[in-house]
Amino acid sequence: MDYIVSAPGKAILHGEHAVVHGKVALAVSLNLRTYLRLRATTTGKVCINLPNIDTFFCWDLSELQQLIASSQGQKEEVTRLNHQLVNRLREFVGVTNGNLDTRTMATLAFLYIYLSLFGSGKLPSLTVSVWSELPTGAGLGSSAAYTVCLAAALLCASGDVPSPLKEWDHTARWCQEDLELINSWAFQGEIIIHGNPSGVDNAVGTWGGMLRFLAGKIIPLSRVPLLRILLTNTKIPRSTKVLVARVKDKINKFPSIMTPVLDSVDAISCTCEKVLSEMTCEPITGEHYNILEELIDINQHHLNVMGVGHPALDTLCRVTLARGLHSKLTGAGGGGCGITLLRPETDSCVIQSTVQDLRDCGFDCWETSIGGPGVQQHSPLSVKEEILEILNQF
C-alpha cells in the first residue's frame, strides 16, 4: 500500500465578502499544491510527518484503539461530525483551550478521518508524510488542500474508493462519485480545523478549475482557461472574522451606499465568469485580457471602499501597474495575498523584474497559474524530485 496524492490551493478571483450577502463569488484553483504520501508499515504505529510546520507524531495502535468506541457507523454518516470522537481526540492530543495551533489542528483532522474510516475493523500501521508548496495562514486554502489529500489517501487505503492510477499512468483522477466522497470527508476535516467553513476551499481542492459560490451552493464550472498569474503574499497578518465584521458594519451604517457596491461586485463576478467561458470555446483575444484587467481594477477599488484594503496591497497594485500589470487582493483582505494577471505576451524580463520589485518590498512572490486540476493520484515519476525526497524521509 503506497499512495501519493496532491491537491491545489485556492484563490478568490472575484466576490470576496460579497458572498456573505448572497452574491456570487468565483473561486479558482492554484497550481501550488500540497503533496501527501501514505505507506503501509509493520511497526504497529501510525505516524504523520509535516515538515512545513516542523511536526512529527507517532502513536501505538493500542493507544488509538481505545478511542474508537464512538466511531462506529460514522462511515455511513459522513455528513455529520462525530463530536464525541472529536472530544476524545482533543483530550488525547492535550487540547486544553479553544486556541488550537496549526500542528494540533492538522493532527486532529488526521486522527479523526483515520479512526472514522478504520475504526470498525483492525487499525492499520501507516506512515503519512505531507509537504506543501502553499504558505499556511495566507488565505490560500492550505488546510483544505491538506484535508483533501488526507481524505483521498485514507479512503484509498480503506478500500472505500479505488485507486484510479493504472501502472502506465503518471497521474490520474477519481470519478465524480468518488470525488464527492473525498470532498465530504475533507469537509469534515475542515470543520475540525475551522469550526464553520463554507466548503469552498475543500471543493476547489477536490475538483480544481473554477467554482461558482452563491447562497451556500457550490457549482464547479466544467471548463476554464489556464491563466498565468503572479501570487504575492504581503505577509501582513489579518483576521477574517474582524474583516467580515467590518464589512457588515459598513453595510449597516451606509446601506444605500454599500448595497450598490455589493451589487456591482456581483456583476463583476458574473461578467468575469462569462468572459472565462468564452475563452474556452472561442479563440482567446487581447480583448478578453483587456476586460479581465479592467474587472480586476474595478473590483480592487470596490474592496477598498468596503474597508478591506491595506497599504501593503496598495503597494502591490502600484508596483505591478508600473510594469503594466493589474492586481487585486484575494481572500479576506486587510493584508494577506494578492494576484496579478499575466498576459500571454508578457515578456519574461518584465515578469522577473516585477517579482524582484515585489520581493524588494518584503513580499513573497511566485509565478504560477490558476484553473488547474483538483485532487490527483501520482506515480513517483510525476512528482518533483525535491518533493519526493521530502516525502521519502520517513
UniProtKB/TrEMBL annotation:
Its EC number is 2.7.1.36. GO terms for molecular function: ATP binding; metal ion binding; mevalonate kinase activity. It catalyses: (R)-mevalonate + ATP = (R)-5-phosphomevalonate + ADP + H(+). Keywords: ATP-binding, Cholesterol biosynthesis, Cholesterol metabolism, Cytoplasm, Kinase, Lipid biosynthesis, Lipid metabolism, Magnesium, Metal-binding, Nucleotide-binding, Steroid biosynthesis, Steroid metabolism, Sterol biosynthesis, Sterol metabolism, Transferase. Pathway: Isoprenoid biosynthesis; isopentenyl diphosphate biosynthesis via mevalonate pathway; isopentenyl diphosphate from (R)-mevalonate: step 1/3. GO terms for biological process: cholesterol biosynthetic process; isopentenyl diphosphate biosynthetic process, mevalonate pathway. Its main location: cytoplasm. It is found in: Cytoplasm. Residues 291-347 form the GHMP kinase C-terminal domain. It is an enzyme of class 2 (transferase). InterPro entries: GHMP_kinase_C_dom, GHMP_kinase_C_sf, GHMP_kinase_N_dom, GHMP_knse_ATP-bd_CS, Mev_gal_kin, Ribosomal_Su5_D2-typ_SF, Ribsml_uS5_D2-typ_fold_subgr. GO terms for cellular component: cytosol. Residues 119-204 form the GHMP kinase N-terminal domain. Pfam families: GHMP_kinases_C (PF08544), GHMP_kinases_N (PF00288). Belongs to the GHMP kinase family. Mevalonate kinase subfamily. Catalyzes the phosphorylation of mevalonate to mevalonate 5-phosphate, a key step in isoprenoid and cholesterol biosynthesis. This is Mevalonate kinase. It comes from Channa striata (Snakehead murrel).
